[in-house]
């Protein structure tokens, strides 16, 4: 499947795409072996992506009428840059279409989105075991950020911090 596939279309998602977004995100959770963490509902997605104050953008990739990929972005702020930038929360291409150029097309759309928002960079995290993704990102010209490690505070620890005794 060449990158110049005339059936390949990337576009911004609409509220009607919510079931497709949900299915692709579920596929991502399965790929990352994180299904137990996948608790979002279609209603959650509708509200957060298409409600009165959307907090993320979604770009979908279709091969004909089949959804084959997505990228989810939100805006962040850099105090050092004094401006916002785009954060790639998730990118996913179904197994049957990996290596076909769809990931690149999604990232091209992301770069256009970043520029249209006045962003000077796109940033994301990748699971350290996901070698195919790491190679893909490096092929695009992305560089790992040395000296940084991602931390997360959630669940019981978050509740304890918010409600000290």
Description:
The chain has helices spanning 18-31, 42-50, 102-116, 131-140, 155-162; strands spanning 8-12, 57-63, 66-78, 83-93, 122-124. It is of the alpha+beta class and 165 residues long. Strand 4, helix 3 (102-116) and strand 5 form a beta-alpha-beta unit. It is globular and about 60 Å long. The relative contact order is 0.14.
Mean pLDDT, nearest integer?
93
Total E-strand runs: 5
Straight-line distance between termini: 59 Å
Counted by DSSP, the helix tally is: 5
Task: Give the DSSP E fraction (strand runs of 2 or more residues).
Answer: 15-25%
Q: Rough shape?
A: globular
Radius of gyration, in Å, reads 17 Å
Low-confidence segments, given as residue ranges, are none
Order of helices and strands: EHHEEEHEHH
Q: What is the total number of structural domains?
A: 1
Structural class: alpha+beta
- Roughly how much helix do the residues carry, as a percent range? 25-40%
CATH class placement? Alpha Beta
Instruction: Give the strand line-up of the largest sheet.
Output: 1-2-3-4-5
In CATH, the topology is named: Aminopeptidase
Report the sheet with the most strands, covering strand number, pairing sense and barrel closure.
Answer: 5 strands, mixed
Key words describing this protein structure:
5-stranded mixed β-sheet; alpha+beta; 5 helices; single chain; 165 residues; Aminopeptidase
Short synopsis of the structure:
The chain is of the alpha+beta class.
């Amino acid at each position: 499947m060449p990158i110049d596939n005339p059936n390949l279309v990337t576009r911004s998602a609409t509220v009607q795409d919510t079931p497709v977004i949900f299915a692709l995100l579920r596929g991502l959770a399965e790929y990352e072996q994180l299904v137990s963490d996948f608790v979002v509902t279609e209603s959650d997605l509708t509200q957060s992506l298409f409600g009165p104050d959307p907090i993320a953008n979604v770009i979908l990739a279709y091969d004909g009428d089949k959804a084959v990929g997505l990228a989810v972005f939100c805006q962040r702020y850099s105090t050092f840059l004094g401006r916002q930038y785009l954060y790639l929360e998730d990118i996913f291409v179904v197994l049957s279409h990996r290596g076909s150029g769809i990931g690149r097309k999604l990232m091209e759309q992301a770069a256009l989105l970043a520029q249209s928002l006045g962003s000077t960079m796109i940033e994301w995290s990748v699971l350290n075991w996901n070698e195919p993704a790491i190679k893909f990102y490096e092929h695009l010209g992305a560089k790992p950020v040395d000296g940084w490690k991602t931390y997360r505070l959630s669940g019981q620890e978050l509740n304890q911090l918010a409600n000290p005794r």
